[in-house]
Every structure is written in C-alpha cells, then in structure tokens.
C-alpha cells in the first residue's frame, strides 16, 4: 500500500495505490483561483497546496479505506515544477515517510505522465495495465515533448518544445481574443462550430525532421492577423472559425510529428497525456491517424490527462518492484530536473 502526492503546479493531489490498483485519487484543482490572474501565481499555488494537502491526504486515505499505519511507502513528485509548490508536497511526503518509518520515493513528473495512458477504469477499481513500447506525447500548459518509451523505466526523449508549450499557445492565443484562462478548453468548445480551414496559420517545424516543437511564432502570427483583421472578433461565426483554425494548426503539428516519430522509431503504439490531451480534435485526429497506420493508441482518460497523484504512485510502485533505491529523506525537490538525468 503506497500513498502518492503531486503538487508540481496548480493541482493538489493524493492517491492510494496497491499492486497496480488505484484505490483513491483525490485532486483539488486551483484553476479557478488562478483564473482571475490569467495564469498560475506561484506564491498563491504554494499557499493553496499547504492548505489543501491535509484534507486531500485524509480524503484519499478515507476513500481507499486505508489507515496510515497500513502504508508501506510514500511517494511524491520531486520535479520539475514550481519550486515552492513542489516543496510543499515533497517535504510533506518525506515527513509522512519519516513519521511512519516507511520508504520514500521521489518521482519525475514527466516520467509519471508516461504511465497515465495505461490506467484503465476509475477508482477504487482503476488499474495499471502492462504496456508495450510506444511513442508518448506529453502535452500540457508547461510541457510539450515526445518520448520513446522502450519499456518500464526505460525511455529516451525524442524532442521537446523550443519555446512555448502547446497548452501555453492555446492559453496565450485565447487571451489575445479575450477568452478567460485557461483558454484551451474554451477554444476547444468554440471550435466545435467553427471552420478549421477558414484562416491559414503557420504549422511551426512541421516539415523539419527533428522531433522538437515551437509554438511561440504561431501565437505571434495570430496577433498580427488580428491587427490586420480586427472585425473577425466582432462576428460570432468568424470568432468560432478563428478558434477552429488556431486549434487545427496546433493539432496538425502535434499529430504529424507524433506519427512521424512513431514510424521512424519503429514501434506500433502511440500514447498521449497532459492537459491538452483533453482536446477533442487532438483525440479525434490522433485516433484517425493511428487507425490509418494500424497503430495502437492509448489516450489518458480525461480525468488523468491533467496532473494527478495516481500516475506518481503507479511509477513509484514500479520503481520499488524494479528494486530502485528509496530517495533520501533529506534530499530536496528539483524544480529543473531533466527527464533522463539521475536525481542528485
Ligand atoms: O496538465 P495540465 O492541467 O497542467 C500543466 O500545465 O501542467 O494542463 C493544463 C493545460 C492548459 O494550458 C489548458 O489550456 C490545456 O491544458 N487544456 C486544453 C484543454 N483542456 C486543458 N487545451 C486544449 N483543449 C482542451 N480541451
Ligand atoms: Zn503535468
């Protein structure tokens, strides 16, 4: 029985895991709190984590019907993320492990995302399934990367964003056109009734053979487009067409590059996780592209696309099963921890 904590950005989450089964996964999201500031305010996030951790941990234990004495290990996100937000969960995890005299495991946030598409069902019966080698797209407000997952605890980063993350591109473009934060879900909703071919926006690095992404230029081109065509925002239909066209540009880049990397690496399975994986066009286009190629597709279920402790706990359990050492109780959170680099 393992308790896992996640506090790297603006979700406070605790999960209880037992042999690949997620007995509870409680998530307290701060999105509404940060909405009035147009983005995550680190200091506020830290305070909220400190306030939310006790009830979220208690809630997860109660839902799982588990007493703290039954825990054999505690895990927490060690990095990367907002420094003080990370520290709140990481130090809480270490303190709990110390008090309970059990092992503590620090987990890499991106590595944990690689495991979330393989969780089926919902607590108390959610279960981690054995997985096949795959190319994994991690796409959220803070990160956009492609990873070749060769096997358990074995992965190679193929590419990442050179500037803005895809979710950041959704959010910043949405802000330009007056939509509330976070803009991704709003753009997704408005795009449903829009024409994705109405306006032609650049598809950055689409033709490059590298697996890196770049989304800052796309946002800037929308800014220039609006300076030339301000009336687009005045009409309901052209507004929706704009949302659909921006979304189509982002999604085409994500899907094309993911499929190209999968073919090149030679695996037959694609996975995706992170907040932007909630996007309906991305889910639909990945599905269609994978069907055309005969690839298996595993998308994280929407509740597990965004940050959650279930994925942290699943990875921590795999690490223990593979004989990885426990993390020192006096180690620190690593806000800039790169995937693939051993924690100091
Ligand atoms: O994983 P997440 O909750 O947090 C991190 O950024 O780590 O992802 C949040 C991001 C935001 O940029 C949000 O706009 C985006 O995911 N997002 C979406 C959708 N739902 C969330 N973007 C596009 N379409 C959506 N449906
Ligand atoms: Zn994340």
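Sequence proposed for the structure above (344 residues):
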């Amino acid at each position: 029985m393992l308790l896992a904590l996640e506090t790297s950005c603006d979700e406070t989450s605790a999960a209880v895991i037992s042999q690949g089964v997620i007995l509870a996964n409680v998530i307290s999201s701060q999105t509404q709190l940060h909405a009035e500031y147009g983005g995550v305010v680190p200091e506020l996030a830290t305070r909220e984590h400190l306030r939310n951790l006790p009830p979220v941990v208690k809630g997860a234990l109660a839902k799982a019907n588990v007493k703290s004495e039954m825990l054999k290990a505690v895990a927490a996100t060690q990095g990367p993320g907002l420094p003080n937000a990370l520290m709140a969960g990481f130090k809480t995890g270490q303190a709990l492990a110390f008090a309970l005299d059990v092992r503590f495991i620090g987990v890499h946030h991106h590595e944990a995302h690689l495991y979330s598409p393989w969780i089926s069902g919902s607590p108390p019966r959610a279960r981690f399934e054995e997985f096949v080698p795959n190319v994994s797209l991690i796409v959220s407000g803070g990160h956009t990367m492609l990873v070749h997952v060769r096997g358990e605890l074995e992965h190679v980063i193929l590419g990442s964003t050179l500037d803005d993350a895809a979710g950041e591109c959704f959010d910043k473009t949405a802000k330009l056109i007056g939509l509330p934060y976070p803009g991704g879900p709003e753009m997704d909703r408005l795009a449903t009734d829009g024409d994705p071919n109405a306006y032609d926006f650049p598809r950055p690095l689409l033709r490059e053979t590298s697996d890196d992404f770049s989304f800052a230029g796309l946002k800037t081109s929308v800014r220039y487009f609006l300076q030339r065509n301000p009336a687009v925002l005045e009409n309901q239909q052209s507004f929706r067409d704009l949302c659909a066209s921006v979304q189509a540009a982002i999604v085409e880049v994500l899907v094309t590059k993911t499929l190209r990397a999968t073919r090149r690496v030679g695996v037959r399975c694609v996975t995706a996780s992170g907040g932007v994986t909630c996007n309906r066009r991305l889910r639909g286009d990945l599905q269609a592209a994978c069907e055309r190629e005969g690839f298996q597709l595993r998308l994280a279920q929407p509740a597990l696309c965004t940050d959650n402790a279930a994925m942290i706990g699943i990875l921590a359990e795999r690490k223990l099963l593979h004989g990885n050492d426990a993390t020192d109780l006096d180690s620190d959170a690593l806000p800039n921890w790169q995937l693939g680099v051993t924690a100091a």
